[in-house]
Amino acid sequence: MMEYKHLGLISIIFVWCALLLLITKWRGNNALTISRHASSTKQAYMIFGIAISFSIVLYHIFLTNWFIPNYKLSSEFEILVNTSNIFLLLTLLIPDSDSIFRKIHRFTAHSFAFSLLFVVMYLVLWVDVSFLTKVIGIFAICVMIAIWILFYFVKSSRRNILIYQFLYIFSFQILILSATYF
Fold first, then answer.
1. What is the pLDDT of residues 12-61, one digit of tens each?
2. Cα separation of 151 and 149, whole Å?
3. Given 3-state DSSP classes, what are the helix, strand and coil percentages for the chain, each rounded to the nearest 5?
4. Is 77 exposed, middle or buried (0-12, 13-18, 19+ CB in 10 A)?
5. Does residue 31 contact residue 165 with C-beta atoms inside 8 Å?
């Protein structure tokens, strides 16, 4: 079981390498979402899609073979996290392009982000994690809710959507790393 523990970290490093490549090689601006950066060229879409798909597989192996058994998490948590991963995969498979697929893409992207918030809440409220992890989790919940509020109620904040997406993802990932290593 211990051999799977570090797959979460490897998965997270892989995600950030893919994101860094995406935003440096296919430059846009902070008003473009991660998805819009990824769909800017066919090459960007393919490289990012493959990298994130690989990361999701590593993350899933980590969750099912170390994280869930280590914390003795319920089947409800497993369903929640699998639903989140399915929404993420659908978001990757359906490009954010100027077509009918844009609405579907946005629905799956928002559903992924919303389900991620519930994963964080579940970990903070119902799992016996360290005090530091609880504090990080509470901070993550506050950041994630603040981003939802900004996104939906402060239209001018969309100029920096890329930064907010990075913060949102980072908030989740730092909680997972804290729960794993502290």
1. 999 999 999 888 887 767 778 888 888 888 888 889 889 999 999 999 99
2. 5
3. 85, 0, 15
4. buried
5. no
